[in-house]
Amino acid sequence: MKKIIIQDIIIPALFASYIFLLSKVILFKFGHIDITFLLEQLQSNLQNPTNMKDRLLLFGNFIPFNEIVNTVQNRTNHNIFNLLGNIALFIPIGIFLPLFIGKGYINLKRVCCISFIVSLCFEISQAVFNIGIFDVDDLLLNTFGGMLGYALFKFFGIKSKNHQVLL
Q1: Residues 103, 148, 65, 85: is their CA dihedral positive or negative?
Q2: Sequence-separated (6 or more) residues with CB below 8 Å from residue 27
Q3: In the structure, what pLDDT confidence band is assigned to residue 152 with cuts at 50, 70 and 90?
Q4: How far apart are CA 60 and CA 127, in angstroms?
Q5: Total-model pTM
Q6: Using alpha carbons only, what angle is made at residue 77 by residues 119 and 114, rounded to the nearest 5 degrees?
Q7: Distance between CA atoms of residues 26 and 131, nearest Å
Q8: Among candidates 72, 93, 110, which has minimal Cα distance to 153?
Q9: Position 162 pLDDT exceeds 50
Q10: What are the C-alpha distances in Å from 74 to residues 18, 81, 98, 138?
């Protein structure tokens, strides 16, 4: 009974809460959630897609490791926080996926793909809603964070009688 409550109620609720908080942090930068603002931004970009294109070309980073190298060479507290934050934000995905979907289906390759896709959705959302800057390095760091979370899950996992991995 306790196992059913954990697997069927607590883990999905924690995963949903995590996705909500991840969305809030990435899309609203710790501010309040303003759906009206998002809709206005979307409408503005749909009416004038050149603005979105120009913003992507002017401010976007499409060169892998460009911002990571820049951060390492020009270390500031803000830059280091941003770099480590991009990794830390996605560690829970690597932990939740085998818990939520199941160990038999999830492996490192799938965690890598899912982390990349989720991160790409957020990066595209930032561009579409004009609320952030597209950065390929964020994709790399987020994906690494998901993989690191999965590695931590595997390292600290305990096999139970029915071979499910539990924390």
Answers
A1: positive
A2: 38, 122, 125, 126, 129, 131, 132
A3: very high
A4: 9
A5: 0.87
A6: 10
A7: 9
A8: 93
A9: no
A10: 31, 13, 37, 17
Ordered alpha helix ranges (H), the chain: 2-5, 11-28, 35-47, 49-59, 66-73, 77-88, 91-100, 108-128, 136-156
Contact 60, 132 (CB under 8 A): no
**29 dihedral zone (left: phi>0; alpha: psi -120 to 50; beta):** left
Predicted confidence (pLDDT) per residue in 5-36, tens digit = 877 888 899 999 999 999 999 988 877 888 89
Question: Residue 145 has which token pair?
Answer: 């964070």
SS3 (DSSP) at 11: helix
Provide the residue type at 144 as one letter: F
Section 38-62 average pLDDT: 91
CA dist list (Å): 44 to 36, 55, 101, 126, 167: 12, 13, 38, 14, 46
Nearest to residue 103, comparing CAs of 15, 166, 26, 32? Answer: 166
Per DSSP, what are the bridge partners of residue 158?
Answer: 166
Contacts of 116 (CB under 8 A, 6+ apart): 139, 142, 143, 146
Q: Tell which residue, 83, 73, 101, 82, has the closest CA to residue 11.
A: 101
